[in-house]
Specification:
The protein has 103 residues and is mainly alpha-helical. It is built from 5 helices and 2 strands, in the order ααααββα. The protein has 2 domains: 45 residues; 51 residues, no CATH class. α1 packs across α2, α3 crosses α4 and α4 crosses α5.
Length: 103
């Protein structure tokens, strides 16, 4: 099945095993040289690349806590995003933090 181009999910279903189990076995077979490549996964659960701050319109007049509530992130995470981008909100100056960190 692996050499036939089947996906990991198809192999797992056919053998009654979990996808993780099949992936682990495929890695073992790859290392021993029995197969040439680990089968591809049909559906991945990768992280989304959408910018959570893009949805927020009025960052300058909002508090860090309000931003965190709106985008579903932690206060610490919002502060990190603001600092990396050099953005300022009503109770946090990410631009000053970025300048301080770079010097």
């Amino acid at each position: 099945m692996v050499n036939g181009g089947s996906y990991v999910e198809e192999i797992a279903e056919a053998l009654g095993k979990s996808v993780n189990s099949i992936r682990g076995k495929a890695l073992s077979l790859l290392r021993s040289g029995d197969i040439n490549a680990i089968p591809k996964q049909k559906e991945t659960k990768g992280s989304s690349k959408a910018d959570p701050l893009a949805e927020v319109n009025d960052i300058d007049n909002m508090t860090v806590e309000a931003i965190a509530d709106e985008i579903g992130k932690t206060v610490r995470g919002v502060k990190t995003m603001l600092t990396r981008r050099g953005l300022t909100c009503s109770d946090y100056d990410g631009a000053a933090r970025k300048e301080k960190a770079s010097s």
